[in-house]
Amino acid sequence: MLLEALYHVPRDKWAYAYDTYTIHLRIRTKKNDIDSVVAMTGDKYDWDRTYFEITMEKAASDEMFDYWECGVRPKYKRLSYGFRIHAGDETVYMVDSGIGWDYPYPPAGYFEFPYIHEVDVFKVPEWAKEAVFYQIMTERFANGNPAINPVGTEVWGGKPEVDNFFGGDLQGVLDHLDDLVELGINAIYFTPLFLSPSNHKYDTVDYKQVDPQFGDNELLKKVVDTCHSKGIRVILDAVFNHCSEEFPPFQDVLKHGKDSPYAEWFHVNQFPCEVKDGIPTYDTFGFYGNMPKFNTAHPEVKEYLLGVAEYWIKEIKLDGWRLDVANEIDHHFWRDFRQVVKKANPEAYIVGEVWSDSLIWLAGDQFDSVMNYPFADKVLEFFNGNMDGLTFANRIGSILMRYPQQTNEVVFNLLCSHDTPRLLTRVGGDTRRMKLTVVFLFTFMGTPCIFYGDEVGLTGDGDPDCRKCMEWNPEKQNLELYEFYRSMIALRKKHKALRQGRFRFLQANLHDPCIVYERADDQLHFIVWMNNSDSYRTLSHPIVTTDWFDAQTEESVKPVNGIMHVDLEPYGYRILCRRLKP
Question: Which UniProt keywords apply (predicted)?
Answer without folding.
Answer: Glycosidase, Hydrolase
